[in-house]
Design a protein that fits this description.
The protein is α/β, with parallel strands linked by helices. Helix content is 35%, strand content 18%. It folds into 2 domains: 30 residues, no CATH class; 223 residues, Flavodoxin domain (Rossmann fold, 3-Layer(aba) Sandwich), CATH 3.40.50. It has a 6-stranded parallel sheet, with helices on both faces. Helix 2 runs parallel beside helix 7.
Length: 267
């Protein structure tokens, strides 16, 4: 007997996770891809990392119009930093009533991350590392038993299979060989965190030197936006690629000027 929903399945394919078999032909269900977009800069529309992360999302949306996109602004809806009460609740202790909303937010943030096929993250450098509000988010997604576990061989990541793209903005120059390289705790930290939970190859688009001067900022932002529009559209992860902007020749020319500037919040 012919499957009664064959005609409808052929036209839209929207029947659960099973395939419909009719007349020797199986029609598989196609799952909608999910993208999680996170911003963490406090600078709003003046932020470089926000502009680049938005360009990345636009590129992927244009390639896959059916993307299901979830957006979280960590400055508009900040997460509390972990406390002893959070850790006790995670171990099964009764949670104070006032902690209830924050524990619900923790669960929502973790589920957003687990459900995502693609994660796009805007991450500015603040005093050589990530913003504190981004650290609070990381503390909610790096969870034993959910995104990693320990066994006889040590820690094992459980969040593999996601494509992670990070838009980084930095006020000076922190690439390998630069005088400030030892102070780079943004890209290196995020690469380590995602690797720990099973995502060994996050992709980075990096806008460097945006506090060196207006011309450097303009060029760095323009190149980063161009790099975002050139991203491959597939959702699957790939080998890591970091794009550092401006070009190396510009970095060499401006390292002396960059060294004289105090740490800033480039956004």
């Amino acid at each position: 007997m012919m499957c009664p929903w064959l005609k409808k399945v052929r036209s839209c394919g929207d029947f659960g996770s099973h395939s419909c078999s009719a007349g020797y032909k199986s029609i598989p269900w196609v799952t909608q891809m999910k993208l999680l977009h996170i911003d963490s800069s406090v600078l709003g529309p003046h932020s470089v990392s926000r502009q680049v992360s938005a360009a990345i999302v636009d590129r992927l949306r244009q390639a896959t119009p059916s993307l299901d996109i979830v957006y979280r602004d960590l400055t508009q809806t900040p997460l509390a930093h972990l406390s002893g009460s959070h850790l006790a609740a995670a171990q099964g202790a009764p949670a104070p009533a006032e902690l209830g909303p924050d524990l619900a937010a923790s669960a929502a943030v973790l589920n957003e991350f687990l459900d995502a096929d693609i994660v796009v993250l805007g991450a500015p450098m603040y005093n050589f590392t990530i913003p504190s509000q981004l650290k609070a988010w990381i503390d909610r997604v790096v969870v034993v038993g959910k995104t990693f576990k320990y066994d006889a061989n040590g820690p094992q990541g459980l969040a593999g299979g996601k494509r992670v793209i990070v838009a980084i903005s930095r006020g000076g120059y922190y690439g390998a060989g630069s005088p400030a390289a030892s102070l780079e705790h943004l890209e290196t930290y995020l690469r380590g965190v995602f690797g720990f939970i099973g995502i060994p190859n996050p992709e980075f688009i990096i806008a460097d030197g945006i506090q060196v001067g207006p011309d450097h900022r303009e060029k760095s932002l323009a190149n980063a936006l161009q790099a975002a529009t050139s991203l491959r559209p597939e959702a699957t992860p790939t080998s890591s690629a970091a794009v550092r902007l401006p070009a190396a020749a510009d970095q060499t020319t401006d390292l002396r000027e960059a060294k004289t500037r105090r740490p800033a919040h480039p956004g």
